[in-house]
From TrEMBL:
This is MYND-type domain-containing protein. GO terms for molecular function: zinc ion binding. Keywords: Metal-binding, Zinc, Zinc-finger. Residues 14-50 form the MYND-type domain. Residues 466-475 have a biased composition (Basic and acidic residues). InterPro entries: Znf_MYND. Residues 419-439 have a biased composition (Acidic residues).
């Protein structure tokens, strides 16, 4: 099909960021980069597909389909075999299938079902589709579809089946539990190339990240929600315009000596002892979405996208360690406010700024030595008294006023009654988690009772609001009548 100006412009961008490309791969002549650094960041992943793509005969698709045999042109697709340890490009033909709704849903299946090793009751089913790179938030030149092996469950819904996909695991071992069975990615409009392969890898990484994020937010008895603060890594800040920190809801297991705090994800932060604050930190992991990418650092250098700037302000010793996003919460399960973390980070920065940097910011050894010097200086100077004085002046500053009037992190009485404002993202995450649980697990009697009580309370609240409104209308009507009589 003919390329649109928009599509051509998209193809001229770096496949690792949204900067205009200046370099193209010498082998496949498809993958474009803005710098040698971005090309280096992508090298491990790109090698999985580059030579294979070149060996495959390049074909063109007109986007048309033969109405007589209902078979379309051959196209290049990206195939992730279930049992092979490497993804590869394959050529397949689209097949015209009549939609159950009567709509022209023509491009659903491939005549490559043999690749899926189907058994009784199994079918090749559409798993997902995406038209944007979720990491770069970039519109793609066409929608990329994904097919997988599936089977209907007792509820009549298709569910992917199979063993952990070894080809996906070749990208990163952490993906072994996220995708099962064979996967086939394709577009109905054109052949896929190595640029699309990068988009697919980003999509797979985001799917895994979403699953891990749900795990950290998931609440099972006897645990409940606690108000927490999420500290965003450089990838979130650079690619998706996240702020340094945001309000979040977290599983109280991270502060109750539960399943999360006992794992390697717990972050030790000795300065909290100096400040006498019961705050703990939990790493959400070296997020696969950003793994391997680097972004511009605050000192004119390049840093891993999984670097957490906010965390290194509070504990400089973590510079150079790929923490990813970090969740902070109070051990006593009281609300941890956004302003508290902001004030703590600024207080620590005012102390560590006394240690001036000398050397090359691109020298990792020099940067880590400097960070450890900052950490040692911070632990010598930080104190509860010093922070209380700083917090009082911070509250009066224009910067502090943007967080509103908030209680001191030491004022337990006010914290017990304080209710933080929930962000839209936290609400959406909670709602989506509820939907996931309803689909994937059988609802227990206790949960049903809780839902019923919640529904009754909601209906009762709605009735009271309606009665109050009716009473107000009646009062206004009476008042109007009395006024008329007076006239």
């Amino acid at each position: 099909m003919a390329e649109t100006p928009e599509a051509n412009e998209q193809q001229q961008l770096c496949c690792m960021c949204n900067a205009p490309s200046t370099i193209i791969c010498d082998i496949c002549k498809c993958s474009r980069y803005c710098s040698t650094q971005c090309q280096k960041d992508d090298s491990t992943t790109h090698k999985l597909a580059c030579n294979n793509y070149v060996k495959l005969a390049k074909v063109e698709t007109t986007g048309k389909i033969d109405e007589e045999d209902k078979v379309g042109d051959p196209i290049n697709c990206v195939y992730f075999p279930e049992e092979e340890g490497k993804p590869r490009f394959i050529t397949a033909r689209l097949e015209k299938v009549e939609s159950s709704t009567g709509e022209p849903d023509r491009w659903l299946h491939f005549e490559a079902s043999a690749e899926f090793e189907l058994k009784d009751g199994q079918t090749v089913h559409s798993v997902d589709k995406f038209a944007r790179n979720p990491v770069l938030d970039r519109q793609l030149t066409s929608t990329i579809m994904c097919l997988g092996r599936a089977k209907k469950n007792s509820k009549g819904k298709y569910k992917r089946i199979g063993s952990p996909n070894k080809a996906v695991t070749a990208i990163d071992p952490d993906l072994s539990t996220t995708f099962v069975g064979p996967l086939l990615f394709y577009s109905i409009d054109r052949c896929l190339d190595t640029n699309d392969f990068r988009h697919i890898i980003d999509y797979i990484g985001v799917c895994h990240w979403a699953m891990i994020n749900r795990y950290h937010r998931k609440v099972n008895p006897p645990y409940r929600w606690v108000w927490a603060v999420q500290l965003h890594c450089e990838g979130d800040r650079f690619f998706v315009d996240k702020g340094d920190i945001e309000v979040a809801k977290a599983n109280e297991a991270i502060v109750a000596g539960g399943e999360l705090i006992e794992t390697k994800t717990a972050i030790m932060c000795p300065v909290m002892e100096k400040l006498q604050l019961p705050i703990v930190f939990d790493s959400l992991g070296d997020t696969i979405v950003w793994r391997g990418r680097t972004v511009p650092g605050q000192y004119g250098n390049r840093v891993p996208a999984t670097h957490n700037r906010s965390m290194t302000k509070i504990s400089p010793g973590y510079y150079g360690i790929n923490l990813g996003n970090v969740m902070a919460a109070r051990k006593d399960k009281r609300p941890l406010l956004l302003g508290h973390i902001d004030a703590i980070a600024l207080y620590c920065s005012t102390i560590t700024d006394a240690i001036e940097f000398e050397g090359d910011p691109n020298d990792e050894v020099v940067m880590q030595v400097w960070a450890m010097q900052q950490e040692q200086h911070l632990l010598k100077k930080a104190s509860k008294k010093g922070f209380l004085q700083f917090f009082a002046s911070w509250m009066r500053s224009n910067h502090g006023k943007q967080f509103g009037t908030i209680p001191s992190p030491y004022n337990l009485k006010e914290l017990d009654t304080y209710q933080p404002e929930e962000t839209e993202e936290a609400e959406e995450a909670e709602e989506s988690e509820g939907i996931e649980e309803a689909e994937d697990t059988k609802t227990t009697q206790e949960t049903k009772k809780t839902k019923k009580n919640r529904k009754n309370k909601k209906n009762k609240k709605a009735r009271k609001a309606k009665e109050k409104e009716e009473a107000k209308e009646a009062e206004e009507a009476t008042s109007f009548g009395m006024g008329s009589l007076a006239i």
